[in-house]
Amino acid sequence: MKRLEAALEPAEVAMLDESDFAANPFLVKGYIGPAALAANGVRYLVDPRIVTGTAWVTGADKPDHHVVDLVCGRDFTPDGTIEAAEVREGDPAPDGSGPLEAARGIEIGHVFQLGRKYADAAQLDALGADGKPVRITMGSYGIGVSRLVGAIAEQSHDGSGLIWPRTVAPADVHVVVAGKSEEIAAGGERLAADLDAAGLRVLLDDRKATPGVKFADAELIGVPTIVVVGRGLANGVVEVKDRRSGERQEIAVESAVAHLVEVTGAR
């Protein structure tokens, strides 16, 4: 029904009711055929698959009767075509490539063809080229920001949590302080500040939680690059982990900022 309404908009679509059948006796409910429509001047449209030379079974314009092998172009000639049939799995593809397969998709945007329903109610007019009022035809187009997050989560994750694509990640680097000493905490804060000064968006986890909890949360949040400031700091290194591949590297503290700027593509 939605496809039919969209194809015929701004005209409104309504199903025939009993009063329509009573007022038009040539319309036999359940057995309407092209012969009666043509004889009574009713314009009718058919599915695009009904082409000249194809044979069909139609209503015979009388109760409990059908016509078999009614040939398009010989026995009836429609006034046009309209694509409004419900598409189902197994239907032939329009391009002839084979049967259609059904698959789940993710809706992230909408196009609503509002027509003139609300414009008529609000009497919304604009001046036309001739300076006379013209009724506005309305449409609504949008992308759901919250839906985008859901779509990213569905397509970019693993068993541990999210894996944000770098272009839309909430942060460039997730710095995890993995140790209880003041030296490690100060080192993590200093690195986070230096990264921020270099133009990177930084998430700093300096909670008084165990390293295991922090590592699990870093995986769950899914920032593309995770930097662990832990016991290696005593040897002048930090660990850099790629969230997507799981690859780990030990990087010297003095070159960590330059390395992470390069990795993240920050400018």
Number of strands: 13
As laid out across the biggest beta sheet, the strand order is 10-9-11-12-13
The CATH homologous superfamily of the largest domain is named: Anticodon-binding domain
The number of domains? 3
Shape descriptor: elongated
CATH topology assignment of the largest domain? Rossmann fold
CATH top level assignment of the largest domain: Alpha Beta
Largest sheet: 5 strands, mixed
Q: Assess the beta-strand content as a share of residues.
A: 15-25%
CATH architecture of the largest domain: 3-Layer(aba) Sandwich
Quote the distance from N terminus to C terminus: 52 Å
Residue stretches low in confidence (pLDDT < 50, at least 5 long) are none
Q: What helical percentage do the residues reach? A: 25-40%
Structural class: alpha+beta
Q: What would the average pLDDT be, to the nearest integer?
A: 93
User: Which radius of gyration do the C-alpha atoms yield?
Assistant: 33 Å
The sequence of SSEs as H and E is HHHEEEHEEEHEEEHEHEEEH
Please tally the helical runs, counting DSSP H or I stretches of 4 or more residues. 8
Keywords:
single chain; 267 residues; alpha+beta; Rossmann fold; two-stranded antiparallel sheet; 13 strands; elongated
Secondary structure blueprint with pairings:
Layout: H1 2-8, H2 18-23, H3 34-39, E1 55-59, E2 66-71, E3 109-115, H4 117-122, E4 125-127, E5 133-135, E6 138-143, H5 145-155, E7 157-158, E8 161-162, E9 173-177, H6 182-197, E10 202-205, H7 211-221, E11 225-229, E12 237-242, E13 248-252, H8 253-264
Parallel strand pairs: 9-10, 9-11
Antiparallel strand pairs: 1-2, 3-6, 4-5, 7-8, 11-12, 12-13
